[in-house]
Fold this protein.
Amino acid sequence: MKDFSKDFPILKNVIYLDNGATSLTPECVIEAMNKYYREFNANIHRSIHKLGEKATEEYENARIKIANFINARPNEIIFTRGTTESLNLLAYSLLNDIKGRNEIVLSEMEHHSNLVPWQQLAKEKGLKLRYIKHNLNEVINDKTLVVSVTHVSNVIGVRNDIKKIADIAHSKGALVIVDAAQSIPHMKIDVKELGIDFLAFSGHKMLGPTGVGVLYGRAGLLDKMKPFLFGGEMISRVSFNESEWNDIPFKFEAGTPNIAGVIGLGKAVEYLNDIGMDNIESHCKELVKYCYEKLKEIQDIEIYSSKNSSLISFNIKNIHSHDVAAILDKHNIAVRAGHMCAMPLVHDILKQSAIVRASFYFYNTKDDADELIEGIKKVKEVFA
Amino acid sequence: MNESMDPNWLGEDDIYRENILDHFKEPRNFGEIENPSFAHTGLNPVCGDTIRLFVRLDKDKKIKEAKFKGRGCAISIASASMLTEHINGKTIEEIKTMQKEELLELLGIKLGIVRIKCGLLSLNTLLKGIEVMEEENEIRN
């Protein structure tokens, strides 16, 4: 893998291994966003002047790039604030059409953002929440309204067999939603090949800025869904008493969107395409495999994540993850510590109050992995 | 990076100095009190720390004994350990006016915006416990 560190000035000061939380932003993405504010700052889809036209064009170009990135059509790409909003939009808007189905199926490794919206919806509407264990064919049945699962776990790095889940769900007439927040920065995703109905992801974990995310939905489904937010842009006609909705995707984009953010995300996708998603995936997995073997040699380390992933989750016996992360931070190594916003998985299944997670990206190197290992040894010395 | 930039800023001195590690490895007053005057559980959702504090008051509403149980990082455990020692003999009113700086001084380290939640978990749990006890007493009276 080529050295990309020159594109990420922050890397001069830190060994950044918290990519699962948010990735760093390359200069070209920052520049693309600055350019909007410096050169064609205007509102989109309404301003007749040249600036407005340029802004609209750039914004819609980003939509096309992102659609191509996941093999969707541009009108199937809705811009949101992030994965969380995309999933909340679905939890809110899908309910129109229950037709006697009253079960929602999740996996046990969901991030809170793909758990709490469904849990609260279930409480409110008297629906049943069910979790996949080793019983796909039983848990997904003709009462299932929707199956919403994470593509790759942010805690244990496990990749779910989405194709298989989608096949079963569709054979029972259920809808399939995939939380791709952790997977899309690391692998090629083709929504047609996966055979899914909806895909949710965030811009900031894939080199984009914070505050912009995507919801992909099959056009036929989006057409039938009711809007999530009401206001400007999402209407076609408004009178004092009635409103008609705009076409998709605009029906779901009320208000002035994060224009610069969307343009930045479009640039990020371009940058990722240039490197190649397959290269990114194999580089990160190689680093994790290397780290995994080294970590296993250290006494008192418990590893919780899959060896075949882009992250490594672990604990050092009798040392709290916060203390591990704080001491690593003293050595300028940034990792995540805590419950990773997946409390049911971390507390109830891994039986840990918190864990340490080092998550890699294409700009990380074998040296970074070595520094991490050395850092962990130093942590053990402090508590020895 | 300087103090203002780094949320985990741990002060000039090493955060994991001897007194912190000592209280973490051998926490004082670790355990339960049977039939306490009140007990309260505090959570730090950011790191998953849990502290349960048990307090027994004497007839003058002074703290006769305080113990705690729980799991947490070195900072939160050390702070709970020091707090249970520190409040012995104090009145409820004294504790209610206790400033957070008093506990942070005991810890002897400067904590950033993230780790301060660990450092103050025990005190916040104690104050919440007192609040709940007083509310219950009011209802009973």
Q: What stands out?
A: The longest helix of chain B spans residues 116-140.
